[in-house]
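Hello forum,

I keep getting stuck at the same step: I have a sequence, I want structure tokens, and every attempt I make locally crashes halfway through. Rather than fight my setup again tonight, could one of you with a working pipeline run this one for me? It's a single chain of 128 residues.
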Amino acid sequence: MIIGVARTSTLEQVAGLEAQVRQLEEYGCERVYQEQVSSVGERVKLEEALGSLRADDKLVVTKLDRLARSVQHLGQIIDRVNSAGASLVILDMGGTAVDTSNATGKLILNVMSSVSQFEREMMLERQT
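Reply #2:
Ran it on my machine without issues. Output:
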């Protein structure tokens, strides 16, 4: 099964959530979990999506920042996806999709998640 997860940080971001759902459905997601919650808030729908994964399923998100709040959090999610025998697909990683069902996708995801974490930390430094 192809399972999508869509998330926005606030209730006001309705158009953003709708756009994510549309992308996930266009990709072929058979079930889409939607939530409007801060990345630091409790992610009930993400937990439901992860709990529903079975062998050979794909968990799909539009962008990495819609899924995880840090490299550590991403690692935890990937561990859960792998434990279920599933794979992760990120539709937009710098203009290309990444699918962790193959070695190249796994490598790209690890490198890009580290770069994303670095960018976030640099942004936070500039804000203080």
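Residues 56 and 86 are 5 Å apart (CA to CA). If your local run keeps crashing, start a new thread with the error log.
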